[in-house]
Amino acid sequence: MILEEMYRSGVRTPNAAQIQQITAHLSYYGKIEGKNVFYWFQNHKARERQKLRRRLSRHQQLLHYQLHQSEDAPPPSSPILQNRMPPHFLHQEATSQGMDLVGKLETVGTEEEEEEEEEPMTSAMGFEQEWLATMDVSSPVPPCCRPLKTLDLFPIKSTGLKDECSSSKSSSCSTSTN
Amino acid sequence: MILEEMYRSGVRTPNAAQIQQITAHLSYYGKIEGKNVFYWFQNHKARERQKLRRRLSRHQQLLHYQLHQSEDAPPPSSPILQNRMPPHFLHQEATSQGMDLVGKLETVGTEEEEEEEEEPMTSAMGFEQEWLATMDVSSPVPPCCRPLKTLDLFPIKSTGLKDECSSSKSSSCSTSTN
DNA sequence: TGCTTATGAATGAATG
DNA sequence: CATTCATTCATAAGCA
């Protein structure tokens, strides 16, 4: 769990030297290469951010929903996080020149940031997957009436498939509802 | 089931928006989150591909075997050689009415050879670092005796580790299982 | 009841 | 850094 320790300490994208050291340490427990460490940090950071993002988006969604739910309905006090900071706020040090052992603009608990490692991750990027988001689409809707308007979920097959079916994927025209 | 319908319709990797809608619809039948839908598609696609791949490999193996039966020494290995083919083998599977570009049956590695294809960059490490290379720091000393002087770089604790650095289960030393 | 299968979840390894 | 794929884990379901 060394890696997580380091991660919690603020290490996000270790540079070559750091990776070397980490790898050296970890090699005690078994065969390990630098790329393993590298990948670990990559994945961990990405997934951490993902989770965070989903929290944010969920909250935002809730807020949005509540805002649009009723004009007069007072928001149940959820003013937490409205992080819409400038798009140029995250910028890690592209693993080249920056040492993030001490972190920087993040709440890097240099000592011991147990919970709440709020990272001002990106927010202006295109659309990634907010799926992992626990967008409880089920909760906002009262069980007595479902706002589902029978979306045409079947014929949707638009730009989701761009890599694998790149050859000549199914035509997304009028999918004739299979 | 709805998801299978969609899958058959050609949906493979729905994007965020699609997942949202699907989740919304499915939420009518019970509690469901976006990640569930995401995982479903991931798994379904993967296993579909897996089945396909297995079938193909089996067939090709049979053919290969039969062809080389009289020519070369018949491989006494069990016919359940299974997968271990080039990572990029087949890409799509047949959808009912979608496109089934099963093509790409490239040089079906008749003899998959173990090659150390590594380190594709080594150029300006502006993007991918060069540790993807097999820089093995664990080499200087046998992994069974700790040569590392326990660098005080960070608080390393040898608690249970079974996934992070054990991508290779070949932990020669006592893998300090917890 | 013990085993095999099916499946959701998670993670390592890439690739773009 | 985002996205995808392959593998693996854990567990529930099905069956002999």
In short:
The first copy, chain A, is an all-alpha fold and 178 residues long. Chain A is 31% helix and 0% strand.
Provide keyphrases for this structure.
homodimer, 178 residues, mainly alpha, 3 helices, disordered C terminus, DNA-binding, WUSCHEL-related homeobox 3 (chains A, B), DNA-binding transcription factor activity (chains A, B)
Oligomer designation: homodimer
Alpha carbon gyration radius of chain A: 21 Å
**Total E-strand runs of chain A:** 0
**Tally of helical segments of chain A:** 3
Give the termini distance of chain A in whole angstroms. 49 Å
Q: Count interface residues per chain for the largest interface.
A: A-B, 67 and 76 residues
Return residue spans of chain A where pLDDT drops below 50 for at least 5 consecutive residues. Answer: 73-128, 134-178
Tell me the strand percentage band of chain A.
under 5%
| Topology pattern of chain A, helix = H, strand = E | HHH
Average pLDDT of chain A, rounded to a whole number, is: 59
**What is the helix content of chain A?**
25-40%
Shape of chain A: rod-shaped
Helix and strand content put the structural class of chain A at mainly alpha
Largest sheet of chain A: none
Family (chains A, B): Belongs to the WUS homeobox family.
GO cellular component, one term (chains A, B): nucleus
Organism (chains A, B): Cocos nucifera (Coconut palm)
GO molecular function, one term (chains A, B): DNA binding
